[in-house]
Amino acid sequence: RKIILDVKGLQTSFFTDDGEIPAVDNVDFYIREGEVLGIVGESGCGKSVTSLSIMGLVPSPPGEITNGEILFQDKDLTKLSEKEMRGIRGNDIAMIFQEPMTSLNPLFTIGNQLREAIKIHKKDWSKKQVQERAIEMMNLVGLPRPEGLMKDYPHQLSGGMRQRVMIAMALLCDPKVLIADEPTTALDVTIQSQILKLIKNLNERLNTAVLLITHDLGVVAESCERVVVMYAGKVVEEGPVHTIFKDPQHPYTKGLLESVPDMRFKKERLYSIPGNVPKPGTIKTGCKFAARCEYAFDRCFVETPELYQTADDHQTRCFLFDPKEVQAHDRTVVKS
Ligand code: SF4
Ligand code: MG
């Protein structure tokens, strides 16, 4: 499958009184046509700034893309004017957010907002065509009795139904890429799972590539093929989902995996990685995870690890996977 979105060396910084703060620090990843790629990490790891960078929505000032390329169908999105980006947003690349209440206007009915969204793109359509399309979209995302629901206001719908409406709006123009930033975080577990199934189902039916951003590896397990793990603005591990779950390499990924709720063992308290994500720009030397890493050794505090290729489709930013290190110390600690 062809690569549809190719992010290369992306650097997005915020300029503050303390100087340049790199929120996204030399990040590379790609999505193939029709693929579901997960980006996972705790909040503050740069996931949302990455998606805003792709959409051309980094608040500027103080934010700015200072380096890198975002190639979409051979165009570098970082080079486009705001007017050109408006043509791409919503048409070729669409986005849904965590809390649909903030993206829906509380003063207008669902039908009104859907119809307006359709009319932006289909200016010559008749009232009847617009109405039929709205009903078709509501059916597509599994909303029951569309005619009745369209007369409702956003607050009359449940959180899960509102998110379905937002997905319908995002898919109106048949985008090539859908970016979903924590789309289920505000929902309870059963609804969460239904929305993920819907996204996966639409991905298969419409062949829309999906960039699914989440702090929860459990969400990734349900819906993604590949996953990129981010920590403190950097990619720390990338690989196929089944590999990452079976053989996580980066100590951070291992920590995230241990904090996935497992319904089979009713654990009383969920594990969480001790410590916090460092503020961007505060750690200048060494591995950014060192302060929280139970495997850290001397080198980790003075040198910065690169991404080591551990298999054709698997890479990890950790010295434990530096071939030199493995040779010198015969480190097997990660396999424990
Ligand atoms: Fe831990 Fe060192 Fe690997 Fe960083 S490089 S994750 S500190 S072992
Ligand atoms: Mg976020």
Automatic annotation (TrEMBL):
<dbReference type="InterPro" id="IPR050388">
    <property type="entry name" value="ABC_Ni/Peptide_Import"/>
</dbReference>
<dbReference type="InterPro" id="IPR027417">
    <property type="entry name" value="P-loop_NTPase"/>
</dbReference>
<dbReference type="GO" id="GO:0005886">
    <property type="term" value="C:plasma membrane"/>
</dbReference>
<dbReference type="GO" id="GO:0015833">
    <property type="term" value="P:peptide transport"/>
</dbReference>
<protein>
    <submittedName>
        <fullName>Peptide ABC transporter ATP-binding protein</fullName>
    </submittedName>
</protein>
<keyword id="KW-0472">Membrane</keyword>
<dbReference type="Pfam" id="PF00005">
    <property type="entry name" value="ABC_tran"/>
</dbReference>
<dbReference type="GO" id="GO:0016887">
    <property type="term" value="F:ATP hydrolysis activity"/>
</dbReference>
<dbReference type="InterPro" id="IPR003593">
    <property type="entry name" value="AAA+_ATPase"/>
</dbReference>
<comment type="similarity">
    <text>Belongs to the ABC transporter superfamily.</text>
</comment>
<dbReference type="InterPro" id="IPR017871">
    <property type="entry name" value="ABC_transporter-like_CS"/>
</dbReference>
<dbReference type="GO" id="GO:0005524">
    <property type="term" value="F:ATP binding"/>
</dbReference>
<keyword id="KW-0067">ATP-binding</keyword>
<dbReference type="InterPro" id="IPR013563">
    <property type="entry name" value="Oligopep_ABC_C"/>
</dbReference>
<feature type="domain" description="ABC transporter">
    <location>
        <begin position="5"/>
        <end position="257"/>
    </location>
</feature>
<dbReference type="InterPro" id="IPR003439">
    <property type="entry name" value="ABC_transporter-like_ATP-bd"/>
</dbReference>
<dbReference type="Pfam" id="PF08352">
    <property type="entry name" value="oligo_HPY"/>
</dbReference>
<keyword id="KW-0813">Transport</keyword>
<keyword id="KW-1003">Cell membrane</keyword>
<keyword id="KW-0547">Nucleotide-binding</keyword>
